[in-house]
Amino acid sequence: MTPDPISLPEEFASSLALARERLGVIAHRVLWYPEVGSTNDVACAMAERKVDEGLVVIADRQTAGRGRLGRSWASPVGAGIYASVVLRPSPTVATLLTIAAGVAVAEGIVAATGLSAHVKWPNDVHVSGRKLAGILAEGAVSHVVLGIGINVQPAAYPADVAVRATSIESELGRPVDRGLVLAECLAALASRYRELQDGRGRFVVDAWRKRAAPMLGRRVEWEAAGETQTGLAENIDDDGALIVKVNAGTLRIRSGEVRWL
Ligand code: BTN
Q: CB of 124 closer than 6 A to ligand 1?
């Protein structure tokens, strides 16, 4: 059972208040928990109960943080940003929402820290070639929950995570304000969400392509029909699917596991 939320720490409250005018529909209501299983579970339950879109659920620690493809997401206390946003997109907007979320989190990290952040399909955020943030989009017909995980401190991550991951503070070599990072990510998300709603998805796709430039042209592999296939990641199409060059031409990968080699 999820405990009652408590009042938002000043670290987050002041930055979100300062960003208020740029947050659009997002963060009109924010729930803070010292500890939950997964903020996505809390947000999904609230979304089922018809909460207005824009609700943000934040936790200082997750005991059952989830990543994409059934993986877990290490969520040590105070070491990261663990936040979930409830949105209610139209089907057209939903098509590009996870791509938009990846772009927005990269943009928010750049705005708050000055780091050079790239996106890796579909929506991982990388700095210096290592993963710094990820997004887990879950939903039903009536809503999408965007779960945002950002590594802030170089915590004691499991060994397999530690070799592939980095954190904002280890890249910068100084402490950062988690509230500022989250506020900038949510402001960027509000802006990209508005673009999708206004029929300007093209801008989102173009922004993704620019932020993915170092990744494009790289070899990827995936499983299909019981076999490992490989190809070169060329681009994304206007619906956010990954276009991969293979011997026989090009393939369009809409979802599922793609390993970057
Ligand atoms: C990924 O695998 O890259 C996605 C990671 C998403 C982690 C975030 S942390 C907040 C939210 N709650 C979860 O349980 N997962 C997401």
A: yes
Q: Is 132 in the pocket of ligand 1 (CB under 6 A)?
A: no
222 sits in which H/E element: strand 219-224
**Do the Cβ atoms of 58 and 31 come closer than 8 Å?**
yes
Three-class SS of 77-102: CCCEEEEEEEECCCHHHHHCHHHHHH
How far does residue 249's CA lie from ligand 1's centre (Å)?
34
Q: Which residues of the chain have pLDDT under 50?
A: none
Give me the DSSP letters along 21-88. GG-TTTTSSEEEES-BS-HHHHHHHHHHTTPPTT-EEEES-BSS-B-GGG-B----TTTEEEEEEEE-
Rg of the Cα trace of the chain? 18
How far from chain centre, in Å, is Cα 121?
A: 11
pTM: 0.95
12 Cα: distance to centroid of ligand 1 (angstroms): 19
pLDDT tens by residue, 59-79? 999 999 999 989 999 999 999
* pLDDT tens sequence across 205-250: 999 999 999 889 999 999 888 899 999 999 999 999 999 999 989 9
Atom number of ligand 1 nearest to Cα 124:
3
67 lines ligand 1 (CB under 6 A): yes
pLDDT at 127: 97
pLDDT of amino acid 157: 73
CB–CB of 176/107 below 8 Å? no
Domains and CATH numbers, the chain: 10-212 (3.30.930.10), 219-260 (2.30.30.100)
Strands 259-260 and 219-224: antiparallel
